[in-house]
Amino acid sequence: MIKKLLSVFVFGLLLISGLNHAPGGEIADSPYFSEEVLFPQEGIFFYRIPTMITTKEGTVFAAVNARWGKAGDFAHTTLVARRRTSGKNWEPIRTVGGDEKTSCTIGSSVYDPQKNRIFLFGGGGIYISEDDAKSFSFENLKIYPNKKSGKSGGTHGSAPGKMLLQGEHAGRLLVPARYAYGKETEELQRKPKEFAKFLQEKNYNCAIFSDDHGATWNTSGPVQIGTGEGSFVELKDGRIFYNSRAYFLDGKRRTAISTDGGSTFGDFKIAEDLVEPPFGCNASMIRITTRKGDDFLLYSGPQNEKKRTDLCIMISRDNGSHWKRLFNFTPGVFGAYSALAWSEKDQRICLLYESNKYNPKINYGEFVFAEFNPEWIYRLERSGK
């Protein structure tokens, strides 16, 4: 019965999508949508914590943690990835960092289009590719603390970063990050009251940034206390709009603004249109400027105040002040962490999200990759659904 229901769901999804099976790299003028399981849970490996970037060559690079034997936060982990060049099929899963003896926890990622260089944070350092994600070299990473707070940020669970394009900080690599006063432990997670207090009073988002193409990294000032795992976009006017997971059990995310390229943040607010489950959830947000001149924000995250289900894509056409729900990728079923990316070359939106909709025997542990174009978005907007 479950398999039958899933088949009906997928068939309905394809019908709604109005598929145009143009090969990757070919721009379709009619609505296009496709999706596939990219990191299937199999054997001992449970996949968690996504990050994804696209390059100017049209390559899509997706990385996650492979947790050994269980999906929990304290499992032994390695950093694995898949790569797809424009118009081609996905390459097999490969290990970037860690092995059966050495754990390697993923962080975020960022792409430098000027140097055609990919940075992948993980294992206490940084993996760098200068050949379009064909290979990576490991370097030790020093993140200099914020001068005012004296604290250094880390990128675990945060959305991918980007290079800023406007104003005096154009060329800066900016990456969402976070800081905690103290260490999260497995024992602490088993104590709901203590854990809630720790998340609400001893965690905050921030950013790390580099003005020399990744040679040195510095830490920004803090976002609101009680936040973690953030995402941001650079708006048309050059401001940085930061959107944060929040731990206040009120089902609402938090937002912040930077007017100095992500060095400091203020104008703290509640995101009234964006719902999230208790203790929040990782989410992703990107700004899209199409070749035809359209400009809008997209957000992905579970839109359910009680549990991690109903992972939806949302659109904003007023710089994040208001959001409209476009599509529910996981109606009534598990959907949690996600990463969005925009391929300028192929004019495609990429979404990597965790769900068990194709494998209901598990909960955490599997990632689905969806790809669609702006025309598919426009169809959803016109339908009003």
By DSSP (H or I, 4+ residues per run), the number of helices equals: 4
> What proportion strand?
35-45%
State the secondary-structure class.
mainly beta
The rounded Rg comes to 19 Å
Q: What low-confidence regions span 5 or more consecutive residues with pLDDT below 50?
A: 1-27
- The helical percent reads 10-25%
Provide mean pLDDT, rounded: 92
Separation of termini?
Answer: 27 Å
General shape: globular
Largest sheet: 5 strands, mixed
User: Numbering strands along the chain, what is their spatial order in the largest sheet?
Assistant: 10-14-13-12-11
The SSE order reads: HEEEEEEEEEEEEHHEEEEEEEEEEEEEH
Account of the 3D structure:
It contains four helices and 25 strands. It is mainly beta. The strands form six sheets. A five-stranded mixed β-sheet has the order 10-14-13-12-11. Strand 20 and strand 21 form a beta hairpin. The radius of gyration is 19 Å and the shape is globular. The relative contact order is 0.14.
Offer a quick outline of the entry.
The chain contains four helices and 25 strands. With 385 residues, it is mainly β.
Topology (SSEs and partners):
Elements: H1 2-17, E1 33-39, E2 45-54, E3 60-68, E4 77-84, E5 94-97, E6 106-112, E7 117-122, E8 125-129, E9 137-140, E10 143-144, E11 162-163, E12 173-180, H2 186-189, H3 192-201, E13 203-210, E14 217-219, E15 227-234, E16 240-246, E17 252-258, E18 266-275, E19 284-289, E20 295-302, E21 311-316, E22 324-328, E23 335-343, E24 348-355, E25 367-372, H4 374-383
Parallel strand pairs: 10-14
Antiparallel strand pairs: 1-25, 2-3, 3-4, 4-5, 6-7, 7-8, 8-9, 11-12, 12-13, 13-14, 15-16, 16-17, 17-18, 19-20, 20-21, 21-22, 23-24, 24-25
